[in-house]
Amino acid sequence: MFSAPDEKRIAQGYQYARDAYAALGVDVDAAMATLAGIPISLHCWQGDDVGGFENLSAASGGGIQATGNYPGKARTPEQLRKDVEKALSLIPGKHRLNVHAMYAETDGKKVERDALEPRHFQGWIDWAREQGLGIDFNPTCFGHPKADDGFTLAHYDDGIRKFWIDHCIACRKIGAAIGKALGSTCVTNLWIPDGFKDIPVDRNKSREILRDALDDVFEEDIDPTLNLDAVESKLFGIGSESCVIGSHEFYMGYAQSREILLTLDAGHFHPTEVISDKISSVLLFLDEILLHVSRGVRWDSDHVVILNDELRAIAEEIVRNRYLDRVHIGLDFFDASINRIAAWVIGTRSMIKALLIALLEPTDKLRELERSGNYTARLALLEELKTLPFGAVWDYYCVSRNVPPGGAWMQSVLQYEKDVLAARG
Ligand code: RNT
Ligand code: ZN
User: Fold this and answer.
1) Does the predicted TM-score (pTM) go above 0.85?
2) Nearest listed ligand to the Cα of residue 240
3) Domain 39-359 in CATH: superfamily?
4) What digits encode the pLDDT tens for the residues 169-196?
5) Among 95, 96, 89, 132, which residue's Cα sits nearest to residue 403?
6) Between 20 and 30 A from 142 (CA), which of 50, 71, 162, 240?
7) What is the whole-number distance in angstroms between the Cα of residue 67 and the centre of ligand 2?
């Protein structure tokens, strides 16, 4: 069922595809070379259902929830790293890993989140160096007793708020240490769950508190070659249905005025609202942004990414506008109902496929048609492009990067499930 096309078929398909794209003025080899230089930041939290290794008895996950109980989830840093390695071995290209503060390694000792230090991430850093990966980072402002009432940086209580401010400051320093150790800029993304389940009376005060708390967090300048700060908005979460303090408008203004990165999560907007349409607007006023590529389904913002129209549109926006240097592409989904490694592989391969399709587009031709007002030909060409043999280029690309083409990777995941995951019980 998941057999790979054989070498001969891949070579033939590639020849055919190269000619088909060349006829439209598209250089397939150049597209693949560009693709190979685009890192995707894989989120470590798909591997353990956003659990972390702190063993806290917190009530909630801050309005985010992985559902399902598929066997074999990673329970130790070593297991999680093994699983990431497995996933990466099935994904073409060089990528990054996105780590949350709750994945600290504290040698069995309790270290409060406001006291975390770079050394608690040494295991990740050493491993990343070995693997040739960059790391991105995140404060964890959820899944903690001090976040149980749904408020962190926007908390009315000075003590609780201070705890989270100190945690976020600690995380920026860890981000910088990671960036330095690996020689690759770390993007540290801040998302907080703060919001009201029911209709609040004072939206303004909470937002003032959050603005001021963020100013405390970002007060110290950090070398931007080591660490870049990003802030992530959300429309609603479980338990914050009526008002999220860190809304899109809030963080748009904040990121712009403080000259930091804005994070656009594809699952954090109204169901018919898309982040692909936001990229070209926000990048007129911001230097760089971070994407959390995800897939919203009704109330859930975190389904596994698939090659759908919006994913393609996101990739098109980045490629057409030559934003590759200004858009950090991160993934953010968690599904505990299917094999977790397969989830990573499916989501990441889909993201890369979307980028490849965008890179294979005769954009100049389409632009010409648009500028001359020939919308008929623009629509016709866009539709014809959809049936070009992109799959043949994808298979060739996979083989050229030493990863399985087609669905052949699935065999390898099933074997790993038998050999490794099953033993975890
Ligand atoms: C939550 C945000 C956030 C988290 C991760 C775990 O809605 O999307 O990015 O998913 O930080
Ligand atoms: Zn996100």
Assistant:
1) yes
2) 1
3) Divalent-metal-dependent TIM barrel enzymes (3.20.20.150)
4) 999 999 999 999 999 999 999 999 999 9
5) 89
6) 71
7) 17
